[in-house]
Amino acid sequence: MPAPWTFDEALDACRRASEAQASAETALISATRASAAAEEAYRKALAREIVHQHDNERVAWTVAPDLARGNALVAELRRERDIAEGVREATQQAAWRHAADRKDAQRFADWSMRRELAERAPGGDQPSWSEAFAGGRAA
């Protein structure tokens, strides 16, 4: 069984876990922005190509979206959009994992504190306890 953390070890572990979570949240914001930008570029290109197919190529409106998706630029932008969405999703999972790790570190720090107090040798560095008080008066 691992030894309880010292106060400094617990503080350091909780600080590192908190920093990792903050970093993951910053990465998630960045990935979300990139995903939204990729989605915007894809939709704009798709709309332009649909109109082009209908107006210039004289394709029916019902067929134009399918043909537009086959355009090289539109297909490339869709791939980039899909990749950006996958990165955003993976970053979201990492943020959840870091949040769970931070909670685990806090629980282990709490456990370490309780175990350290429970295992102190009698007569050692025990905290001194005062008599119990009831209603502000000595019991």
Cα Rg: 30 Å
Biggest β-sheet, characterized? 2 strands, antiparallel
Distance between the termini: 40 Å
Which secondary-structure class do the elements indicate? mainly alpha
Task: Report mean pLDDT, rounded to a whole number.
Answer: 88
Strand order of the largest sheet: 1-2
Classify the beta-strand content into a percent band. under 5%
Number of helices: 3
Oligomer: single chain
Helix content: over 70%
pLDDT < 50 stretches: none
Q: How many separate domains?
A: 1
Shape annotation: rod-shaped
Can you write the helix and strand succession as a string?
HHHEE
Please count the beta strands (DSSP E, at least 2 residues each): 2
Give the helix/strand layout.
Blueprint: H1 7-55, H2 64-69, H3 72-118, E1 133-134, E2 137-138
Antiparallel strand pairs: 1-2
Helix pairs in contact: 1-3
Care to describe what's here?
With 139 residues, the chain is mainly alpha-helical. It has one domain (7-116). Helix content is 73%, strand content 3%. It has three helices and two strands. The protein has helices spanning 7-55, 64-69, 72-118; strands at 133-134, 137-138. It has a two-stranded antiparallel ribbon. Strand 1 and strand 2 (137-138) form a beta hairpin.
Features:
139 residues; rod-shaped; 73% helix; 3 helices; 3% strand; two-stranded antiparallel ribbon; mainly alpha
In short:
With 139 residues, the protein is mostly helical.
